[in-house]
User: Fold 8-oxo-dGTP diphosphatase from Pseudonocardia oroxyli.
Amino acid sequence: MSESTWRRVWHDHPVPVLTRSTLVAAPRRLVAGVVRDCDAAAESLTLAGHRFSSSVRLLIAGDEVVLDAALLPGVRLRYVSRIRSVGPEGMTSEAVRGLATSLVHTTTLHDTGTGTTLRDEIAWRSPFGPAGRVADALLVRRLIDRMVDARAVVYRRRAEELAAGPVVVGAAIVRDGTVLAAQRAHPPELAGRWELPGGSVEPGETEPAALARECREELGADVRVGERVGTDLPITVRGRDRTLRIHAATLAAGEPQALEHRAVRWLAPAELPTVAWVEADRALVPDLRALVAGDRPG
Assistant:
């Protein structure tokens, strides 16, 4: 199901607002991961005839992305948007450079009985008064309609494919206001970067069981697996798309050792943004800071 509505709200200048809702047959946390995935954004915007670029794949608050929108044949307008917020409930971005004096894109996600409703709201303030109203009617509304149409198709397909695919789990192990990180020893392109311990869920294995097994194999320690952390994260492993899911955990027995990694270390909240994380785990830093802060005494 996909439906679109259009509404205008008038202040001292016209403020067009486009809203569109799409039903996706996938869990909300997984859809939230697709929403923050720049690979999905690039595919959908290319489908709509535009160009998109980002220095990262998975977005966090503060990241910036670039859209070169095809307004007319041979005419492109560049917008730079900054991510204001991102999480299991959705994402909000705001244009910080571009022709429009204000452009805010808010995506909200809601659980349904059959999956997730993805609702996009795009609002902007036209910069040219009456001339801007004409441009809204003739060009901008049509352009944004095509964008959100393509977005609905691509995001729904990607989320539903991921929902049927393999899962990788990771452990956010907390102790005394710190979280455990492990330094990769291989492959060469990832050696030296940091990640949360974990691995693939085997057929017939639950996610908590897989995480407990992986921690024993990688760290020589037993863990208690707790609640989910953050959104699901789309990742690509050896050319195959997978979903990464992170669970909070605490030590049950044993002291973590680097059995399969180069090193392990406990990170305080202030250290988390300073570590050279692998791409997917970088996207978890705000969630890890919140998790660790909640574990700190007092």
